[in-house]
Design brief:
By secondary structure, the protein is of the alpha/beta class. The protein contains ten helices and six strands; from the N terminus they run αβαααααβαβαβαββα. The chain folds into two domains: about 160 residues, HAD superfamily/HAD-like (Rossmann fold); about 60 residues. A six-stranded parallel β-sheet has the order 3-2-1-4-5-6, sandwiched between helices.
Length: about 240
């Protein structure tokens, strides 16, 4: 969308100074963490491995190879790729039955895109699952998707967010990291976004997030909008 064609009510929102918004998926855009917990519980049960809610919560936000390695160490007698495939297939099956959107997420996405501001999905899930969610949103909601199988080092490493910013910058020379907002629900995600130098917003879901330097916490996206994201730039 060219800026000359933006409706008057959106010009004020663009004046908030937000250059782009980077979205985590699991737990931030969609509440799929319970689906991952169920997938892990079913898989570990096949191998007689006890798997607690606390163990599942400890994997939230990690890259899939990291999570798979922990499950393998716990006693799941499969190789890393087999564990990842089993988990992803299970979650995809559950998503196809019910998509658990997080409160306020789709509304905020729509407002940002209506204002002509690019959004990118940055997830540690693989493309197979990310594509299931992406296809359910209006065309053009996301400029592109950065998935876990596109990077060598997943969150908490900054590589996923660095890659998103680099790809956006290829077509938008005026992008500034201190005007790009990342929205996350996990500790690894917060660490990744902050290390990449973007403005970082935490919205806790399954795991509590601590107060601390370099990020802002909101209890929910419900009732929030682009103007609220713009105010984070000054706070950062």
């Amino acid at each position: 969308m060219s800026r000359t064609n933006i409706a008057p009510k959106h010009r004020e929102l663009i004046g908030t100074g937000v250059h782009a918004v980077l979205w985590d998926m699991d737990g931030t855009l969609v509440d799929t963490e319970p689906y991952w917990f169920r997938a892990e519980t079913l898989l570990t049960a096949e191998y007689g491995v006890a798997w607690s809610h606390e163990q599942a919560a400890a994997l939230v936000g990690n890259s899939l190879p990291t999570s798979a390695a922990i499950l393998r160490e716990a006693g799941v007698d499969l190789d890393i790729r087999q564990i990842i495939d089993a988990l992803v297939d299970s979650v995809v099956t559950q998503v196809r039955e019910v998509v658990p959107w997080r409160p306020g997420a789709r509304e905020m996405l729509a407002e940002i895109r209506d204002a002509g501001i690019p959004c990118v999905m940055v997830t540690m899930s693989e493309r197979k699952l990310a594509s299931e969610i992406h296809r359910l949103l209006p065309s053009g909601t996301f400029e592109f998707v950065i998935s876990g199988d596109m990077v060598e080092r997943g969150k908490p490493d900054p590589q996923p967010y660095d890659l998103a910013v680099e790809r956006l910058s290829a077509s938008r020379e005026d992008l500034s990291r201190d005007r790009i907002v990342a929205i996350e629900d996990s500790l690894p995600g917060l660490a990744s976004a902050k290390a990449a130098g973007v403005v970082t917003l935490g919205v806790p879901n399954m795991v509590a997030l601590p107060d601390g330097p370099g990020h802002t916490l909101w209890p929910s996206l419900e009732g929030r909008g682009l103007a609220d994201l713009g105010r984070l730039l000054g706070a950062a």
